[in-house]
């Protein structure tokens, strides 16, 4: 019971700091410092310095700026719009074709991106105006684009999976491979949701009337080649064992810059913006990791994760009930925290419980990633919702939110499938061993 009290005090303190307007990383860092002074010893403050130094100089984290650089480079290229055009041509007159094209384009872009907001912004800037121009209900167009953007942190490479791997010391390569099938399933569920909505109310998405020849479809496949090349270069190297995730990140960043350069979009001002965004995102990531590690240091010394693991595993109930309870808590927190904050705050607390129950850390990593996907489109702090509001002119946050709410359902279905059928995520990593 003492562990629950400490955990409650930690959450209250965190919310109190966040209410002042400071960032999550700074709030967790302050809690770590104060917790060390109050519960451990002023002499232990030197250990926080060691934690900051070790994390910021960790070779594992080199992969972060590499994948971020790859994402930012691709966002500056026409790859997103080319993918959308190709999907649009191939889906033709299927009900909700443009909506499904947006989701499939997001899935394809996610395979070379790794960031949910970057995916939502890149695809949304092209797809939403096109759907609205063709008579789509604007709330539906905005909602499905926000939901499609969430695939950016599930279909590998994924910055969220890198963070989970760093926190839990789980193989990042195994996490990447494990995210492929769940990502494709959830993309399919999102497309199915669009199709059902349009079949029930055809006025939401009028059919595209222009005819397309097979020659146009085949020629459009040329635009997919850069994505395939980059996807094979990154994931193929990891899956085959030729390269580590860090090495594949370096290859991916180099290939992405070459693709953008060949496309003619790598002017000096573009390169400057790409590098600036990479530095900003990487710095934010490192601050989150260090702040989270400060809090984790105190929580572990007090014994909160261990105590909660003992309490939860001693309960007379099936393990899956505890897992469902953990996921419900993550979903609730997702309404108020951004995806990365959820990872650094909650994973260190619940990870020992999950391992004590005998569950696979890779499987739990995919579960947490799907939870962060849902958090990205859950009001009031759904990150993708605000991204689209800023990217699309004359759009209100209420429109984006109303459109996105229905797409929480297919994401939740994907989460339940993974809870009760772990092999969905684990069979590909098991083939690597």
Task: Note the main attributes of this structure.
membrane; mainly alpha; 433 residues; 23 helices
Please, could you describe this protein's structure?
The protein has one domain. It is built from 23 helices and no strands. It has helices at residues 2-19, 24-40, 45-56, 63-75, 79-91, 97-110, 116-133, 138-149, 159-168, 172-178, 180-200, 214-220, 225-240, 245-263, 268-302, 304-314, 319-333, 339-356, 361-375, 383-391, 397-405, 408-420, 423-432. Helix 15 packs across helix 18, helix 16 crosses helix 18 (339-356) and helix 17 (319-333) runs parallel beside helix 19 (361-375). The two termini are 40 Å apart. The model has no long low-confidence stretch (mean pLDDT 83).
Give a summary of the structure in a few sentences.
The chain contains 23 helices and no strands. The chain has helices at 2-19, 24-40, 45-56, 63-75, 79-91, 97-110, 116-133, 138-149, 159-168, 172-178, 180-200, 214-220, 225-240, 245-263, 268-302, 304-314, 319-333, 339-356, 361-375, 383-391, 397-405, 408-420, 423-432.
How many individual helices? Answer: 23
**Span from first to last CA?**
40 Å
Number of spatially distinct domains: 1
| Topology as a string of helices (H) and strands (E) | HHHHHHHHHHHHHHHHHHHHHHH
The biggest sheet amounts to: none
Oligomer: single chain
Strand content: under 5%
Write the layout of secondary structure elements.
Elements: H1 2-19, H2 24-40, H3 45-56, H4 63-75, H5 79-91, H6 97-110, H7 116-133, H8 138-149, H9 159-168, H10 172-178, H11 180-200, H12 214-220, H13 225-240, H14 245-263, H15 268-302, H16 304-314, H17 319-333, H18 339-356, H19 361-375, H20 383-391, H21 397-405, H22 408-420, H23 423-432
